[in-house]
Design goal:
Elements (H helix, E strand, L loop, with lengths): L11 H13 L7 H7 L13 E8 L10 E5 L1 E3 L2 E3 L1 H12 L7 E7 L5 H13 L3 E7 L8 H12 L3 E4 L2 H11 L16 H12 L1
Parallel strand pairs: 5-6, 6-7
Antiparallel strand pairs: 1-2, 1-5, 3-4
Helix pairs in contact: 4-5
Length: 207
């Protein structure tokens, strides 16, 4: 039988535009309960399948970030598209900052460290943006016992990415800048449970 495309592409334009809209728009802030649930330094975080990426972008024109250079991405899971938080950021950044020769200082605060696929894509991204420095502070290490995931982190390190486990200061920075706390004070309780182990494990992986 001959291939027939009839009805196969009926909603293509709508779905393609919808996907681009999903990838393009970061959230301004997340609510406090989301932050407290998804960001603690835990070794094994059951039920936490979502990954949040809080980002800030500094250019040589600004000494500090304004609100337009900050935001939060979350991994997207839809019937027609799956996109990790890191991939959402890379797509957004290429759209917002098309000039490859500018100087950029980018910081990520992640609830999970990047998977091997995202690590590869970040390395390729850094090859495009030669004057961009990227710092990644992650709350937890994703599959830290798996050699493939360890190799992904090493590739990021070798590409010049600063990697570290989120500390108390990092959590407070996120609370102040990425959480809709409505005036509630920052409390470190339970956020740093697994910090010592994760920090030592990350250094072991990178060494």
């Amino acid at each position: 039988m001959r291939f027939q495309r009839r009805n196969l592409l009926k909603d293509y334009d709508f779905l393609a535009a919808e996907l681009q809209e999903i990838l393009r728009n970061p959230m301004d802030r997340i609510d406090p309960n989301t932050f407290r649930f998804h960001f603690p330094n835990l070794l094994y975080a059951s039920g936490r399948k979502l990954c949040y990426l809080c980002f800030q972008v500094e250019t040589e024109d600004y000494f500090s970030c304004d609100d337009s250079d900050r935001g939060v991405f979350r991994n997207k899971v839809h019937p027609w598209a799956r996109c990790h938080a890191e991939q959402c950021f890379l797509s957004w950044f290429r759209d917002q900052y098309p000039y490859r020769d500018e100087y950029y200082n980018v910081t990520w605060f992640l609830s999970w460290s990047p998977c091997p696929t995202c690590a590869e894509e970040v390395v390729e991204f850094l090859e495009e943006y030669r004057n961009l420095t990227l710092s990644i502070f992650t709350s937890r290490l994703y599959y830290f016992w798996d050699p493939n995931y360890q190799e992904g982190l090493c590739k990021l390190w070798d590409a010049g990415v600063q990697l570290d486990i989120m500390s108390c200061d990092d959590f407070k920075h996120c609370w102040d800048n990425f959480v809709d706390h409505k005036g509630m004070r920052f409390r470190r309780r339970n956020l740093l449970k697994g910090y010592d182990f994760l920090a030592a494990k990350l250094q072991e992986i990178l060494r």
